Amino acid sequence: MSELHWKSAITKVEPNKLAVRGYKLDELMGRVSYAQMVYLLLKGELPPENTGKMIEAILVSSVDHGTTPPSVLSALTVASTGAPLNAAVAAGILSISQFHGGAIEECMHILHKGMELIKNDGKTLDEAATAVINDYRAMGLKLSGFGHRVHNNDPRTTKLFALAKAYGVAGKYVELANAFVARMQVITGKTLPLNVDGAIAALLCEMDFDPILANGFFMIARVPGLLAHIHEEKTRQKPMRKIHPSDVEYDGPDERSL
Amino acid sequence: MSELHWKSAITKVEPNKLAVRGYKLDELMGRVSYAQMVYLLLKGELPPENTGKMIEAILVSSVDHGTTPPSVLSALTVASTGAPLNAAVAAGILSISQFHGGAIEECMHILHKGMELIKNDGKTLDEAATAVINDYRAMGLKLSGFGHRVHNNDPRTTKLFALAKAYGVAGKYVELANAFVARMQVITGKTLPLNVDGAIAALLCEMDFDPILANGFFMIARVPGLLAHIHEEKTRQKPMRKIHPSDVEYDGPDERSL
Amino acid sequence: MSELHWKSAITKVEPNKLAVRGYKLDELMGRVSYAQMVYLLLKGELPPENTGKMIEAILVSSVDHGTTPPSVLSALTVASTGAPLNAAVAAGILSISQFHGGAIEECMHILHKGMELIKNDGKTLDEAATAVINDYRAMGLKLSGFGHRVHNNDPRTTKLFALAKAYGVAGKYVELANAFVARMQVITGKTLPLNVDGAIAALLCEMDFDPILANGFFMIARVPGLLAHIHEEKTRQKPMRKIHPSDVEYDGPDERSL
Amino acid sequence: MSELHWKSAITKVEPNKLAVRGYKLDELMGRVSYAQMVYLLLKGELPPENTGKMIEAILVSSVDHGTTPPSVLSALTVASTGAPLNAAVAAGILSISQFHGGAIEECMHILHKGMELIKNDGKTLDEAATAVINDYRAMGLKLSGFGHRVHNNDPRTTKLFALAKAYGVAGKYVELANAFVARMQVITGKTLPLNVDGAIAALLCEMDFDPILANGFFMIARVPGLLAHIHEEKTRQKPMRKIHPSDVEYDGPDERSL
Q1: How many angstroms from the chain centroid is the CA of residue B63?
Q2: How many angstroms away from the CA of C242 is the closest CA of chain A?
Q3: Cβ(B20)–Cβ(B41) under 8 Å?
Q4: In terms of DSSP bridges, do strands A17-20 and A11-14 run parallel, antiparallel, or are they unpaired?
Q5: Mean per-residue pLDDT of chain D
Q6: Residue D42 is inside which H or E element, if any?
Q7: Which residues, at least 6 apart from D186, have a Cβ–Cβ distance to it below 8 Å?
Q8: Which of A152, B17, B227, C81 has a 20 to 30 A CA-CA distance from B188?
Q9: pLDDT score at B75
């Protein structure tokens, strides 16, 4: 034991034995979902089944958003130079930052601020939302998680909240997020619907995740999407092509039902 | 439409409508697993249910391997400088390379070489394995996917193959991988069991994935593990500490059953 | 000209003609130093000769600090996985962050705060230093740029300031930095000498660089050092070795004079 | 001393004393150039003065190539998401890969192959060039370092070779590179002039650098260019803008002389 001895509470590795948070990995395989493993790794405990399903739906909702997000464009740019998969994925991950994905964490902070006013100051949902909105407006700040550059009625948000209700995950934070939308309309006269980042923020609050990890959920969700785009670049395009950021046409399968 | 117009077959994005490979994202949410989405993104079609379960088990098997892999150590080193999540995850991803994760892709190539000898030259499993092993030995090359620095009877391999049998995914490539182990023992006198990389390689061959994507499965699987370690570093350790690569003690929950 | 047309003022590229900030690259080659090019790129004009020498000395001062900085350890960790040069350098760059290199930018802000008190409020150097120190102490913040974990009389700082005097670059900001050291001793009773980050901060302030770019100087300086360490790892060490963060012995040339 | 004890021959760090390859850093400052430090770090010895000037000219020649290279576009894409400097620079570095910068290393291998035929088989420059060209053509491979997508008479190449002659660095490898150009014209009927990558390759061969490090020179040279573009993005453009890869207009200073 050296002076640099340190401790970690995540995975115990012994010869022919691996246990994550106390559970043997081979016992977990085939019995728990990847989404449950995400929860186990990040919170230390296996989630109730419905909570696992909620994580799963969040990940599925964010798996890809076409070719235009900067994470895809930076990954494709790197891939087009002949760089290996890991370099291209890393460049994609590096784009998941303040203005791309970052809204989840910022919206979690907004909702936590509102919830503190409810818990500590006895404010109602509407009063709390109003107070936080006015604070942000006074500081000249935008409220992250509301409004979207493409969608004004994001089907992912609607579905996430429907599933959250069905799974019993929706609670005070979902109510508060809805109160924000309503109060913003009254205060600003503008309809800024909750976007998918805002919806995920509300649900991560419900499940009591550390806001530091918010962007992490987005990264977990997006890696398969990044890989699909990088693979397409490497198999379908010429190296070093000029990649137009928006003049792209979808030519995949026609719309189809499950 | 500019001269740089290009096409992509992955996700169609329209206002209030998102479809991955033709399936509306909000219809997929709550009905398909993240593992099925990985398959849909990387292969273009939804997998049969059991194939989805196989992907899920592969991802669960590789989600973490404690603090010693270089992907974790590079991520922690970056995290300890106060860098944000994305920089630390990217540094982890950059370590998933030739000698760390790379064995999956190399082992897929080995198995494909063997399978070609079977299909094109009419060799038996044993003859094909023998031929490839002798080729590699003649070139002075190690066979990736066999042997492990910690485990000689990796419980993840056993479980992956048991699940592959149960799910109907195990076939010729799994047989061939086992033939390699048997022939290597005869030829070299050494027992080099299939490791988890080799098992995953055989299963990705069974499911007909492009070997270029092999390391990608490892990346998808490991991001939650990296996040757990980065979060632990940021919440439990002091910035800029000297990170010992092996003098680490597990102090998480005792072994427990599902 | 598309709707995405944009402008850049850095380099004009035409067939067989390249001009940086208006100067033809082939005319610059052989006549200006790399350090002068750094200034030209980042400020838009060629520097006076002595200012170019100042930049050169700053870069030379920060080119390497042995094996222990996290930038080197993350680069070596990635290099040991067989990853190519670019991945290892990128991992090193990702470690140049808040607690590693970040002190330069933070110290520039501290000095700018002090200088504003002098310019706008008519305070003396000592009064300005005292006010800023007290502000930071009241907020419980450390003053970046002062003190070092290894050196208490950093020879690089002494030399940088001697050169700055000789080159005519030293001015009000250098005086202010020295006033901070003196006032901190009076206020706290502790001697916290200016470290190399603090010295560079003062000189970048003298040359009127944007603090956003501070870490950039550190990156420029360190890339050759990172490359030397990565090359040593790849040529002298076995892949996937466990890299001890401090139990390293120098075995290069004995001390020698120019 | 632990079992993980290791050695490094680069920099000795003691309290108040730092020596690179045996030379005290504060003695180097103000007396040697950054380019000489690059040589010292990567080769272990200080270069003759003219060799240092050669390195300097190589670095100056490659410091920037406008907005269109993928290293700049990936860096800008990441910067536009609000990511800090280190993430954007790292994304730029990750683009310096096989098809972008990689030609230097590949061309060094080509020249080394030719030189071996001269040294070991007694071939003339022309015979050696012919043999290597024919080998590559038989394998269906392009010869890296010859031809450029923008320039057919790159002023940087001409100047680099003129300086190499003046500095006494030009020798057999420069002659061989020229022989390649001449023989390719005879063999293929096409004029493929040596590009800047090819010229740098010849000069790095003359100075006996390890080809593994070739891309490293390009990285060292480009970091200031990347920083200038990232800074322009952060100060002149809106976050999350769509970055057109070629519809860019130079609006910097008019052409001017030194």
Answers
A1: 9
A2: 14
A3: yes
A4: antiparallel
A5: 96
A6: helix D34-43
A7: none
A8: C81
A9: 98
Tell me how far apart the alpha carbons of residues C155 and C171 are, in angstroms, rounded to a whole number: 20
Q: Strand pairing partners for C248?
A: D6
B21's torsion region: left (phi>0), alpha (psi -120 to 50) or beta?
Answer: left
What is the residue type of A30?
Answer: G
For B76-84, what is the mean pLDDT? Answer: 97
DSSP string, A4-35: T-EEESSEEEETTEEEETTEEHHHHTTTS-HH
Give whole-number Cα distances, C220 to B47, C37, D228, in Å: 48, 12, 12
The DSSP output letter for B153 is: S
Model confidence pLDDT, tens digit, residues A105-144: 999 999 999 999 999 999 999 999 999 999 999 999 999 9
Q: In chain A, what residues touch B227 (CB-CB under 8 Å)?
A: 41-42, 213, 216, 219-220
Using a CB-CB distance cutoff of 8 angstroms, which residues of chain A are in contact with residue B13? 65-66, 68, 150, 250
* Percentage helix, strand, coil for chain D under 3-state DSSP, each rounded to 5: 55, 10, 35
Residue D104, amino acid: I
Angle at the Cα of B157 from the Cα atoms of B154 and B161, rounded to 5 degrees: 150
Which tokens belong to C127? 């009064």
The H-assigned helical ranges of A19-84 are 25-28, 34-43, 49-61, 70-79
Please judge whether D86 and B87 are an interchain contact, meaning their C-beta atoms are less than 8 angstroms apart. Answer: yes
pTM over 0.80: yes
B197: burial class by Cβ within 10 Å (0-12, 13-18, 19+)? buried
Q: Which helix (H) or strand (E) holds D17?
A: strand D17-20
Contact A220, B227 (CB under 8 A): yes
Closest CA to D35 of D9, D13, D61: D61
Domain coordinates in residue numbering, chain C? 11-47, 103-213
Query: In which residue ranges of chain A is pLDDT below 50?
Result: none
Work out the average pLDDT over C39-66: 98
Amino acid at D20: V
Other CB atoms within 10 Å distance of the CB of residue C1 = 7
Cβ-count burial of C248 within 10 angstroms (0-12 exposed, 13-18 middle, 19+ buried)? middle
Per CATH, is A103-213 categorized as 3.30.930.10?
no
Phi, psi of A15 (to 5 degrees): -55, 125
- Which residue(s) pair with A24 in the sheet? A19
Buried b (16+ CB within 10 A) or exposed e, D212-250: bbbbbbbbbbbbbbbbbbbbbbbeebeebebbbbebbeb
Does residue B103 contact residue B145 with C-beta atoms inside 8 Å? yes
Note whether A18 and A25 are within 8 A (CB): yes
Q: Where are the beta strands (DSSP E) in C21-116?
A: 23-24
Kind and range of the H or E element at D12? strand D11-14
Q: Which residue in B11, B74, B254 has the most chain A C-beta atoms within 10 A of its own C-beta, making it the best mutation to test that interface?
A: B11
Phi/psi-derived region of residue D66, left when phi > 0, alpha when psi is between -120 and 50, beta in every other case: left
Min Cα distance B100 → chain A (Å) is 11
Work out the minimum CA distance from D72 to partner chain C, whole angstroms.
12
| DSSP notation for D194-248 | B-HHHHHHHHHHHTT--GGGHHHHHHHHHHHHHHHHHHHHHHHS-TT----SS-E
**Residue where the block lists tokens 């310019």:** C119
Task: Please give the structure tokens belonging to residue C28.
Answer: 């610059």
Interface probe with A: pick from B10, B46, B254, most Cβ of A within 10 Å: B10
Cα–Cα distance measured from residue C200 to residue C221, given in angstroms and rounded to the nearest whole number: 12
Largest CA distance in chain B: 64
Q: Phi/psi at A211 (nearest 5 deg)?
A: -55, -30
